Batch of 2 targets.
Target 1
Amino acid sequence: MFIGKKILVGVTGGIAAYKAAEVISRLRKQHAEVHVAMTKSATEFIAPLTLQSLSANPVHVELFDEPKLWNVEHISLAEYIDAVVVAPATANILTKMAIGLADDFLSTVLLATRAPIFVAPAMNHAMFHHPATQANLTILKDRGIHALGPDTGFQACGTVGDGRMSEPVEIVESLARFFGGKDWLKGKRALVTAGGTREPLDPVRYLGNRSSGRMGYAIAQALQEAGAETVLVSAPTDLATPPGVTRISVQTALEMYDAVLAHFSEVDVVVKAAAVADYRPAVQAEQKIKKDGTSRTLELVPNPDILAELGRKKTSQILVGFAAETENLLTNAQHKMQRKNVNLIVANDVTKPGAGFGSPTNIVSFLFPDGRKIDFPQISKLEVGRHLVREIACLLGVDTKE
Ligand code: CTP
């Protein structure tokens, strides 16, 4: 799994720092190129020389050390690596990552890199359950950072609880799984739509919806991670474009229609996660509409159904639709799947807590035209994206067995 992969192991100051030696050793045995960055406190628990010998590379501690390999080391290393795993990750480093604090070599690389980041939290269980730590972990997971563990068991402070670092073997297995699935969609092209369209009434007002765009952005990230060349047609959101993804910004359903249709013939898969306005105002006022105290009626005209249009036009493309429902979830989703001629529909009840608009998590079912149905528990939107990638790969005829 790790041939040709460059992995930075970040080690922070907790008693589990000694286990970092095993993480490094296992990665090396599986042919990874390993680099190590330690915080100053980590060096109190384990000698840099140990980790240098195991990784066969110089260990980075201070930001302003003499460069060992590169000129601006924290930047060049940040760009060079394929993944970072912080093991152990103390409450302190999780806080720094959550707020974007860069005051030593490791935290600076963590801010500068666009490579996937894994953290293996390790701390006393009271610290782990503190609302601050939990809030920080939520922020990090929401940004797509992978949290591994922690485990439950005997802790160095003498208590029993969760907060023990995951076993090195499990940490390395998680990384292997991540890289193992990575190339499923290599050479494929994907198009994702995200966000809620805005239909202008006048220069200052629009008809919109509650979509945050998170689901579509997570899917674009998962497709890109799996090697697909990914275009994201996005209605307005507050989200950053996932690294490596090409974003086309649109406002209205008609603009989204044009952007999607322009790319349709070039892609292998389209995922329509956007919440598209079904209607737009018949007239868009050129000047701000003034109130006059009387009631008004707004005339709306239908927008094109983009997905249904793709369903009519498709040749070999795989089409994935979403059904955001507030009642009769499965029946409505099945009807949409048939009406729009899609290969897979993701059904989600947007009224459930932990699902739908704005939430970092979702609760979904995948429905297929042959009657198959896969139900998922509440998982992060990125995990939903990764499950979707696996199904898309299968539909494209890729062997995804591990
Ligand atoms: N969709 C689309 N174009 C539209 C409306 C919806 O491409 N004008 C796509 C959405 O991106 C989604 C799927 O169709 O993938 C279902 O969208 P949804 O809003 O759940 O359903 P609608 O088709 O709009 O039906 P209704 O509003 O009656 O539930």
Target 2
Amino acid sequence: MSVLPFDQRDGFIWMDGALVPWQDAKLHVLSHGLHYASCCFEGERAYGGVIFKSREHSERFRNSANLLDFEIPYSVEEIGAAKALVVAKNGFDNCYVRPVAWRGSEMMAVAAQHATIHVAIACWDWPSMFDVETKMKGIKVDIAEYRRPDPLTAPCHSKAAGLYMICTISKHRAERRGYADALMLDWQGRVAECTGANILFTKDGAIHTPIADCFLNGITRQTVIGLARARGIEVIERRIMPEELASFEECFICGTGAEVTPVSEIGPYNFAPGAISRVLIEEYAKATQPQKAAA
Ligand code: PMP
């Protein structure tokens, strides 16, 4: 793999209130965020130079930090302006946008009440998969060993760096076994989500999806549910046990990165990407176009 490492690229990163040259956006190795996972982030996409649902992402960013017991020292409006500036300054039309916030170096123990909160925003090229026919082949998904934690054991609605530890382990295991991603069950053994995307199924023309009560209620998930309902497709949010997977027809995952991506297999269960996946791929692509989204 000859992908240029992320710390060796050129461009600008917004850091603690100002744009800095990309390779100067550094932090010290003794940072609380690194050692104790007091860190949260966002994942967004710009389409045609406009970040899709930027305000919702900024709000979630601030809320993620609050759930980790710290306050991002910028308002939703300031974060929105900084994100737009980063996209414009780096000259991207279509890109991925990554805000991140972390506790700094003033205190290096479990308690870090007085550590400074740092914020950075970067963006990079991450093309959408435009070819619908390739998408419609579907991806193969493993079943992870780790489960989404009980809400009493982790701040599950925060997009917290620490919550991705089990996602990375699960995704690595899936990739080693020839899968593109892994389905995680929750602490009660119910179907939850994939390592970086939510999951939906279809049966008899309706969409069935797990209740987002112990994992991220993705902004894409909420968008897709709205798009489906607007087209008269019934969406049922309920508890789904893994044994039920055999009874579903289509399956797709959705998230900022994945957008809407059909699934052909989850472990021993097979799905046939079909009409509902296709229509939602198309509707989501339309919704993310800036002119139409603003109309
Ligand atoms: N779950 C997890 C674990 C994720 O990382 C993501 C991507 N942020 C999602 C769900 C989907 O969230 P969104 O649609 O807001 O990108």
